[in-house]
Amino acid sequence: MKTVVVTGASSGIGRACATYLASRGFRVFAACRTPPPGALPGTHVVMDVTSDASVEHAFATIAAAGPIDAVVQSAGIGYAGAIEDTSVEEARAQFETNFFGVLRVLRRALPELRRTGGRMIHVSSIAGHIALPYQGLYSASKFALEGLTEALQYEVHGSGVAVSLVAPGDFRTGFTANRRTVAGADGSRYAAQFERTLTVFEADERGAPEPREVARVVHLALTSRRPALRYVVGVPLQRWAVVLKKILPWRLFSAVLRAIYKIRGE
């Protein structure tokens, strides 16, 4: 039985991954700050990825139970609002979980995975390929995660450890309800435009499929003999958007996104 640690396992994609992997015979350690109502799949372990001490304690507890074969990093938060309205403190909070939290976990986990020839999966986002208006700091954190993981796969080459990125598009999770709005959005010159764009985001997310498909792709990355560095998962239009960004003239691509997100340039 392979042992996998899943961060951010209390809800959304993390919980879907923990549930799916447990159903496929993995021994799951579901890591999150506090357990949600109802039972978590596998064994709950307290882990706050923004705390060095919490990450160290959690991995010491897990490692004491036996070898660790895989880590799925799914913990994340999202801030919404104009970049101009986002404080440095809010930007730091965004990166503290989505980027530095990943760094904390990978630094602690890699020695364990090196011993087992294990796998590490980072849950990124299509927003790490296509920057989203009024989620600029969220996109920046995912762009940073993409770069970090790409560099990491060179550095661990030959160690027996494989790393992959799974970049989901819109899925129906608690992310919509839990998205944080920056304090500067109140009375902002961007207020009307922000509300229009946010309405599009929320409609897309609420009408999106359940995150089981993301969990299936994570399982594929964990079990493939030669896992890919990047997996993009989502509805066809969103997957194609990643490809089209690379081949379309920028003026055309950006005009299409402005139309989709109702950006009127007021």
What's this model, at a glance?
Helices cover 48% and strands 15% of the residues.
Question: What structural category characterises the helix and strand content?
Answer: alpha/beta
Point out poorly predicted stretches: none
Number of domains: 1
Q: What's the CATH class label?
A: Alpha Beta
Rg to the nearest angstrom? 18 Å
| Helix content class | 40-55%
**Spatial sequence of strands, sheet with the most strands:** 3-2-1-4-6-7-9
Query: What is the level-2 CATH architecture name?
Result: 3-Layer(aba) Sandwich
Strand content: 5-15%
Number of helices: 9
Assembly type of the shown chains? Answer: single chain
What is the makeup of the main sheet?
7 strands, parallel
The outline comes out as globular
Q: What is the fourth-level CATH superfamily? A: NAD(P)-binding Rossmann-like Domain
Describe the overall structure:
The chain has 266 residues and is of the alpha/beta class. It has a single domain (3-235), classed as Rossmann fold (3-Layer(aba) Sandwich). It is built from 9 helices and 9 strands. It has helices at residues 12-23, 52-64, 88-116, 136-155, 175-178, 191-206, 212-223, 236-247, 250-260, and strands at 3-7, 27-32, 43-46, 70-73, 79-80, 119-123, 162-168, 180-181, 230-233. The strands form 2 sheets. The chain has a 7-stranded parallel sheet with strand order 3-2-1-4-6-7-9, with helices on both faces. Strands 5-8 form a two-stranded parallel ribbon. α1 packs across α7 (212-223) and α3 (88-116) packs parallel to α4. The longest helix is centred in the middle third of the chain and has 29 residues, at 88-116. The N and C termini lie far apart (57 Å). The mean pLDDT is 95.
